[in-house]
Amino acid sequence: MELKHLYEMTSLERYNFWRTNLLEAQKFWATVNPDNVDLCDWRDPEGEELDEIVDYSTPPSCGTLACFGGWLPWAPYFAEMGVRQNPGRGTPEIGAGERYECGSNVAKYLFGEWYLFDSRESREGGTDHAVAATRIANRLAEVERVIDELTRPEA
Known about the structure:
With 155 residues, this protein is mainly alpha-helical. The chain has one domain. The chain has helices at 11-29, 68-71, 76-81, 104-111, 128-151; strands at 43-44, 65-66, 84-85, 92-96, 99-102. The strands form two sheets. A three-stranded antiparallel β-sheet has the order 3-4-5. Strand 4 and strand 5 (99-102) form a beta hairpin. The chain is globular.
């Protein structure tokens, strides 16, 4: 899939793109078992039955631990968009060539902010799953506020 650069989109197109992706992320994240979330790892194969040579392109099992970014390639919506997991490192990636993004740059491209894939910060309370859900909800509220401003008729 050929990625459209964010700077090729108008502000409204960009924020609508991020809004759609955040809504899809919320739906997917609600299906991920909180016990399988670890904000310190893209994907930790401990508890998984992976080949001797670790290949992170193997679909997650019930023992998979991963952060939001590590789970993202397994969301059908994002997989269809071209998000995949780097088989050697476990990081999410999208695009190719000059239009290739990996790791936290995938969050910047899809959602407009890198921090959605960050490790837990000491001031963030709750389970790792709840922290990621809160980050998604907060970013969605911010994006919707900007869309409202961009679409508000001039007085």
